[in-house]
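Let us begin with a simple case.
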Amino acid sequence: GLIKGMRASGDFFDELDALIKRRCALAIKRTKANGRKTLRGVDV
């Protein structure tokens, strides 16, 4: 895995979750702005 051999604290995963939520919200906004209902990789 990406963090193989490393340890991660709970706040790392909290921040990762928040980052994913922000990126998804932006992707949804972009998708809607382009008149689509399907999220694409390019939206991220």
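The second case is a distinct protein. As before, the sequence precedes its structure tokens.
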Amino acid sequence: MPLSFAPPADNTLPLLLVDEAGLDALAEGLDPAPRAWLSASGFKAALGTVAVLPGADGTPAVALGGLGTETARARSRFGAAAIRALLPAGTYHLAAAPEGAAREEFALGWLLAGYRFTRYKDAPAPKAELVAPDGIDAR
């Protein structure tokens, strides 16, 4: 099973990766309705957690992926890869994410989370896809 990113598209959903320390600042930048939804969801940006915020029409408008704390990330190298399995079906693009090695690690974890060994038994493909993040060699 080849590991690859989704092709670039116009109708992708933004995926914002946020750590526990940055969650309050991110929430303050949201409009009142999504901020209330985020608060009611109980999302704390723990490593590998997800919150999906609806738009005005009720469909998903933005997804948040939790990066936890620096200590949590150090203990679990690809912990953020769990985000892929928790997201609803769709194609996403990274709208906010760490830079450098942390971005590369997230991208690799995303791809590895999509691997399925299907030689003896079929396995469903992941339902969430990601357009290759800026700065990531997707070849």
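The domain at 16-117+126-130 is CATH 3.40.220.10 (Leucine Aminopeptidase, subunit E; domain 1). The chain has a mean pLDDT of 91.
Keep these points in mind for the review questions at the end of the chapter.
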